[in-house]
Amino acid sequence: MNNSDKIRYVGMNDRQTVLFEHQWPVPEGVSYNSYLVVDDKIALIDTAAAAFKDEFISNIKEEIGDRKIDYLVVNHMEPDHSALQAVIRNEYPDCTIVTNAKAVPMIEGYQGLTDNIKVIKEGESISLGGTTLQFYMIPMVHWPETMVTWCPEEKTAFSGDAFGCFRAVPDGCLVDGFVDFKEEITRYYASIVGKYGQTVQAALRKVSPLGIERICPTHGPVWEKDIPEVVGWYDRLSAAKLERGVTIAYGSMYGNTAKAAQAIAQELENKGITVKLHDLCEENYSYALADVFLYDTLIVGSPTYNAGIFPPVQSFMEALKARGVKNRRFAAFGSYTWAGMSVKLLNAIAAEMQFETVHDGLSFAQGYNADKFNASEIADLLI
Ligand code: FEO
Q: Is the CB of 78 under 6 A from ligand 1?
């Protein structure tokens, strides 16, 4: 970390986990960031995932040797950051847990810890000697107990999941690298935090006046020089400031709906429109979700299956609903064999989500026929 001997990184990369939260692919890994603030007293900000117990303790000892940890600050209780609290208490029995009232029952429930917990309120602080830690609640970024720890002397915000991303970081904790991490920031945001856009906006309003010069999140790089870029990107995602462009997400059983998807994509590309094509049967839907958070138009394709929507596409639509996605231009398409239902049902979901349906939908019977499927009907409406 640049220009600080007080803040030490003690987190690690996880390159073994295939699915973060058992649902989000992390082909480039993910980091679990934890930090020490070292002064007359020592505070540890959050812990790490259970599988990394030995590495975590070793990282701490490497930084502080035989010195003791005085405070364990709990910003967030999701087990990717909280799984080693009892381990820390075992290693440092006098360490005081510092957190807010909402986290207390979670600490007992997950870790069985009930004693020596200092409950702080909004704006309260603790002193480590020359260094202060001050606490601001940012509920629902990403759980109700989440808070930011602010160190004014270091102008550093320990931001929890906010400003985090998927992807392991080189050498433990890279500083900056917004351009390289941008896609995985977006996919992380869409997958993990996307439901909470309004609370992210409230958190941004709360921390913006602090004069932050360093952001230490729980995942991904520490941000210093690239703070304007990463904060601006989170602002854009959480406020749904959308670009003109089309996400096409589809599932296909025998390739007919896939051919229709490719035909629509080709028509749009021919007209110079940005298109992102996602096969929901071949890739995790987090990749399509990320594009839905960037672009103003969504086209969804599904064959009719059991008189309904094909399950991979249904799951994607449920994920959109769960995140409260609104205000996209929308169209549906898909094949059927004897009774076309998928387009009608997709349109019904779109209406529920306050999408603007730009076309009634293109459904077709049996095999895809390029001469009959008029992909330009939808593409022409999106210019
Ligand atoms: Fe990285 Fe909400 O935990």
A: yes
The secondary structure of 237-270 as a DSSP string is HHTT-PEEEEEEEE--SSSHHHHHHHHHHHHHHH
Report the nearest-CA residue for atom 3 of ligand 1. 78
Using a 6 Å cutoff on CB, does residue 187 contact ligand 1?
no
- CB 10: neighbour CB atoms within 10 A? 25
Burial 247-278 (b: 16+ CB within 10 A, else e): bbbbbbeeebbbbbbbbbbebbeeeebebbbb
Report how far ligand 1's centroid is from the alpha carbon of 368 (Å). Answer: 43
Pocket of ligand 1 contains residue 218 by CB under 6 Å: yes
Ligand 1 in reach of 259 Cβ (< 6 A): no
Distance 159 CA to ligand 1 centre (A): 11
Q: How far is the CA of 81 from the centre of ligand 1 (A)?
A: 7
What pLDDT tens digit does each residue of the chain (383 aa) get?
655 799 999 999 999 999 999 999 999 999 999 999 999 999 999 999 999 999 999 999 999 999 999 999 999 999 999 999 999 999 999 999 999 999 999 999 999 999 999 999 999 999 999 999 999 999 998 899 999 999 999 999 999 999 999 999 987 678 999 999 999 999 999 999 998 888 888 888 888 899 999 999 999 999 999 999 999 999 999 999 999 999 999 999 999 999 999 999 999 999 999 999 999 999 999 999 999 999 999 999 999 999 999 999 999 999 999 999 999 999 999 999 999 999 999 999 999 999 999 999 999 999 999 999 999 998 888 87
**Does the beta carbon of 80 lie inside 6 Å of ligand 1?**
yes
Distance of CA 284 to the CA centre of its chain: 14
